[in-house]
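pls design
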């Protein structure tokens, strides 16, 4: 299979070069068909047939659908894609009553090795290009019709700030050419400090979510190996710098793991960090979703409510996420790039989704 710049990696100039010999207006026409309609050459009925044929042979799609699954209530769709070199990634579309959100992958696999995450358990395959990320959004936007796709979250497979240039390239393209404003795009990081610092200087005001999960180094070292490189003091400095520079709140993600990070002590430590930032962080609680390689369980509902209450009583803004996608292994941390549905031991009562409240 051809491996070259994929269609959504091409700049407008590169597209024009591919159309050399055609009238000048064709490049704009094809560009709009691709970006505004997500059309593929065979659907570009306003083009002559010969040109459609030619385009079909020169434009290289990034994503080849291996499977698509929908949750029982059809509000969540998960795709498993094969890329041109055989690597596999997943994308999840979530339809809420008043908004539609796509969760994209930024890497095939992930090198960060968080113990509780199915992607981390599978290791790293490779970086995705900007076009490979963008095409996930284009596919989800098409599938969401007639609904409008409102939000993009980089919370699928991979660590976007460990693929900074390409992930940021995708943000710029989504913002500029797909009409989804930066304020509706969220990057989620496990704590890549240099990436957070770089993000603080970017022109586009995207949202930042930091996957914290523990607010003391001794515990975070175990859950998130990257903490040994960038411990909490360095991470919080970078978060404070980001908030200061952007004048925007960020959010902390916290996967609640029964008996591990859901005690009153954890809530107090988390509250201290959330409130220490120049603008207090918003906390998203995600009861741990089961994954094949991690034995612990998610905090049960009473424990989640108690943890939430404890944060609220300390003055912290908090949201508990809903349980979208667990019946198709599409919830947070369950994306493994395999065709299977529910992993062994997964219960549909497990909670978790990746919506970030505005
Ligand atoms: N690598 C980035 C983005 C992808 S992970 C990051 O870690 O932030 C997306 C979110 O899913 C993160 O908040 C991550 O901590 C969370 N997550 C991973 N495994 C999970 C699990 N088993 N249950 C619940 N959330 C999980
Ligand atoms: Fe990678 Fe995020 Fe999973 Fe950690 S939680 S292994 S950083 S995808």
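designed seq:
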């Amino acid at each position: 299979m051809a491996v070259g710049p994929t269609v959504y990696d091409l700049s407008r100039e590169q597209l024009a070069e591919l159309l050399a010999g055609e009238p000048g207006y064709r490049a704009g026409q094809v560009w709009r068909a691709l970006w505004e309609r997500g059309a593929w050459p065979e659907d570009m009925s306003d083009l002559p047939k010969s040109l459609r044929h030619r385009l079909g042979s020169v434009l290289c799609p990034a994503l080849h659908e291996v499977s698509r699954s929908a949750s029982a209530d059809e509000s969540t769709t998960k795709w498993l894609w094969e890329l041109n070199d055989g690597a596999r990634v997943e994308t999840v579309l979530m339809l809420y009553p008043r908004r539609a959100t796509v969760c994209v992958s930024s890497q095939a696999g992930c090198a960060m090795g968080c113990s509780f995450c199915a992607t981390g358990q599978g290791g790293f395959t490779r970086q995705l290009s900007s076009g490979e990320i963008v095409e996930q959004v284009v596919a989800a936007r098409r599938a969401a019709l007639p609904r409008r796709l409102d939000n993009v979250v980089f919370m699928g497979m991979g660590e976007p700030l460990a693929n900074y240039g390409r992930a940021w390239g995708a943000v710029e393209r989504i913002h500029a050419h797909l009409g989804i404003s930066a304020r509706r795009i969220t990057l989620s990081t496990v704590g890549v400090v240099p990436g957070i610092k770089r993000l603080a200087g970017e022109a586009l005001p995207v949202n930042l979510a930091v996957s914290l999960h523990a607010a003391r180094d001794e515990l975070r070292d175990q859950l998130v190996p990257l903490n040994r490189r960038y411990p909490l003091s360095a991470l919080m400095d970078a978060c404070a710098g980001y908030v200061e520079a952007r004048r925007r709140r960020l959010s902390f993600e916290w996967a609640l793991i029964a008996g591990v990070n859901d005690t009153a002590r954890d809530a107090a430590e988390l509250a201290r960090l959330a409130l220490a930032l120049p603008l207090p962080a918003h906390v998203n609680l995600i009861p741990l979703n089961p994954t094949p390689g991690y034995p612990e369980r998610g905090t049960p509902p009473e424990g989640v409510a108690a943890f939430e209450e404890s944060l609220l009583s300390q003055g912290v803004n908090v949201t508990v996420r809903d349980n979208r996608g667990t019946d198709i292994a599409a919830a947070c941390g369950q994306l493994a790039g395999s065709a299977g549905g529910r992993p062994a031991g997964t219960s549909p009562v497990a909670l978790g989704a990746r919506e970030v409240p505005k």
